[in-house]
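Figure 6 in text form: structure in, sequence out.
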């Protein structure tokens, strides 16, 4: 894990929050039907991405169906359309056959859900449904429940696939499927693994926000929809002579420039513009209250981590941390924040996310806290 300070939240330990996470469904039956659908006829070192029109239509139809049936109801849920550029970027990443989110240059601008399986045929829609089914572990954060910070509302291992699917302002999706001859999935090598990548724009899963506004369907749609509503979704009629998207119109095309001192930067410039709110925004923040000795691995189980409220008095606590700039998962969340320098002994808010594997961790003493290794 790596810590990057944020200018927007003085007491925050901010790392790149992709709003996207991996998901897999293992299976042990035969592959013939599946491989005949996604493989090329001629031998190839890596099989090309193939997503039939029927799969595209199923993915898009299911996204909009699920978005229109959220509970509690959404007042600003937008109709989702298929985006060819998002499909191309998803195809490029699916061809890499890497069971991680990427590429890094796009993750500051897009949301991403991943799935992989092997064995009997599974339609892409079955994975989309599995992402949505995380709703069983999710509790919508009503503003009156925040006093002053909303708790993290997921009771299961993760809910961020679900929240990306139902993020109200995410109105474009593009997906790709690739059959990988050999793919490392959490330490196990899967042969002929079928890899699904779905990219979303504008990205969702912004820390401190609910996925949508609760209210009568279509009662808070953006003005650009002209009052249109279809199946509980903000909708505008599509015309055949619509202008094609340009680089300026599509957020995926232009990756923000990283900060000079940090490889992983908070995406300040790419965030969608929102109308100003009259109420304080603190009522929509979601956070988990942790202790000084709470470890990263206790709270970051296979997903992008979240926002944590650290108590005062962690400076003299004996909880261990490992590393400098990058912190090993058995480190104390709050003590790592102090060591990095974005929190002091008064406590405060910390944003953390997973940063993948690193070859080693550096021992140092900073701000009165000694790290090991």
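Output sequence:
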């Amino acid at each position: 894990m790596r810590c990057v300070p944020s200018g927007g939240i003085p007491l925050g330990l901010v790392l790149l929050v992709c709003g996207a996470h991996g998901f897999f469904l293992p299976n042990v039956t035969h592959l013939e039907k599946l491989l005949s659908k996604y493989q090329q006829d001629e031998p190839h070192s890596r099989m090309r991405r193939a997503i039939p029109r029927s799969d595209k239509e199923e993915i898009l139809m299911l996204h909009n169906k699920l978005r229109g049936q959220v509970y509690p109801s959404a007042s600003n849920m937008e109709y989702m359309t298929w985006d060819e550029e998002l499909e191309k970027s998803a195809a490029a990443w699916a061809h890499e056959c890497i069971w991680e989110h990427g590429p890094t240059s796009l993750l500051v601008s897009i949301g991403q859900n991943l799935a992989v399986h092997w064995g009997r045929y599974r339609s892409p829609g079955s994975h989309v449904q599995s992402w949505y089914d995380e709703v069983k572990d999710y509790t919508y954060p009503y503003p009156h429940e925040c006093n002053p910070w909303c708790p993290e509302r997921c009771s299961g291992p993760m809910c961020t696939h679900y929240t990306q699917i139902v993020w109200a302002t995410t109105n474009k999706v593009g997906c790709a499927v690739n059959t990988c001859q050999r793919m490392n999935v959490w330490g196990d090598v899967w042969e002929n693994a079928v890899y699904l990548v779905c990219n979303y724009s504008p990205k969702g899963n912004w820390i401190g926000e609910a996925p949508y506004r609760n209210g009568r369907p279509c009662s808070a749609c953006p003005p650009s929809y002209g009052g249109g509503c279809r199946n509980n979704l903000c909708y505008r009629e599509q015309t055949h002579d619509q202008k094609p998207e340009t680089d300026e119109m599509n957020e995926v095309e232009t990756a923000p420039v990283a900060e000079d001192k940090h490889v992983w930067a908070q995406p300040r410039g790419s965030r969608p513009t929102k109308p100003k709110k009259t109420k304080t925004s603190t009522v929509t923040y979601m956070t988990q209250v942790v202790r000084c000795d709470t470890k990263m691995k206790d709270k970051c189980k296979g997903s992008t981590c979240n926002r944590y409220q650290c108590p005062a008095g962690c400076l003299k606590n004996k909880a261990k941390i490992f590393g400098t700039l990058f912190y090993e998962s058995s480190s104390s969340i709050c003590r790592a924040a102090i060591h990095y320098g974005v929190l002091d002994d008064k406590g405060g808010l910390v944003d953390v996310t997973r940063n993948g594997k690193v070859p080693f961790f550096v021992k140092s003493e900073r701000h009165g806290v000694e790290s090991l290794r």
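Caption detail: The radius of gyration is 21 Å.
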